[in-house]
Amino acid sequence: MDYADVMRLVESHQSETATLDYKNGAALGRQNDQRDGLMKEVLGFANSGGGMLVYGVQTFADRQRKHIPERLAPVTDAAVTVEWIQQMVNSHSTPRFSDFSITQITCPDGGGRLFVIEVRQAMTAHQAPDGLYYQRAGLETLKMTDPQIRDVMNRRAGVQVEFEFRHVWQHRGGDEHRYDLVPILKNVGNLSAERWRLQVEIPQAAVNGEVLTNRAAIYARSPIHRVQVTISGAPYLKLVYPYSIFSRVGMDDLHPGDELEFLESTGVVFPIPITVNTPIHRTVAGQAIFWRVAASHSSPISGEVAFRDWCNF
């Protein structure tokens, strides 16, 4: 991420999400309360599904828009560096948490710096220096309950998968972009995902219904379920991929280290066709894609793909 990327978030009024949080640059500093705030937010993402923390962006003050960026508010404390942040997080988390990356961005006008901290999901629960455990819940970072703490501590004992999309361009020009979203499912844990099922919920306005229908007709024998649903008042298309689809290609069980791309070359599935123009972009702006993986003998795993990561326009 660079300065232009951050400015796009601000200028498009990209709201905070379960995986994106903004902080005024004044919140990052060497005082104990600033350190505790840093630890709360970083470990809150680690104890949930991961996310991105942007220091140097001020959100609106009124209640209705408190999660929407208003302007840049850079970090001005010269003592705050990438190395200092790494040391703070490493030395004040229990057990030590280090699965994160930091990007420092210098503002062009010399008015300060921005820090983007990308936090990956932790494999166990990490405690903040105030003795509490935190977890990102929707748009807030909250104290965890005992059952939530135990559930995160048991992550190592369950199936661990990661989900993402790869973009394959079909057309890019003028006011219309068309591309395929290729789902990618990875087993990054130590246990096999047996008899698994993937569910993807995607903003319906962005899905090219004609292309999707044509592809579904070609693979009529593939039991991919399509259902229209509503999420937070917005129409979504839910796609459900049962494990039986992949038995023909030997991927009905996803073993540790396995990676599965949902390509037409598999002969059983197809990518998701997306069309975005200005009206569609306005309709779906800020809407995430939600996913959920269920497997035998394991708790379901869910997450989301932020708008900025799936919508290319």
Structure description:
The chain has 313 residues and is α+β, with helices and mostly antiparallel strands. It has 7 helices and 19 strands. It has helices at 3-11, 32-46, 82-91, 146-153, 209-218, 278-284, 307-310; strands spanning 20-23, 51-55, 57-59, 69-72, 100-106, 113-119, 134-137, 140-143, 161-173, 176-187, 193-194, 197-203, 225-231, 234-242, 253-254, 259-261, 272-277, 289-294, 301-305. The strands form 6 sheets. Strands 13-14-12-18-19 form a 5-stranded antiparallel β-sheet. Strands 1-2-6-5 form a 4-stranded mixed β-sheet. β18 and β19 form a beta hairpin. The longest helix is centred in the first third of the chain and has 15 residues, at 32-46. The chain starts with a helix and ends with a helix.
List the helices and strands and how they pair.
Layout: H1 3-11, E1 20-23, H2 32-46, E2 51-55, E3 57-59, E4 69-72, H3 82-91, E5 100-106, E6 113-119, E7 134-137, E8 140-143, H4 146-153, E9 161-173, E10 176-187, E11 193-194, E12 197-203, H5 209-218, E13 225-231, E14 234-242, E15 253-254, E16 259-261, E17 272-277, H6 278-284, E18 289-294, E19 301-305, H7 307-310
Parallel strand pairs: 1-2
Antiparallel strand pairs: 2-6, 3-4, 5-6, 7-8, 9-10, 10-16, 10-17, 11-15, 12-14, 12-18, 13-14, 18-19
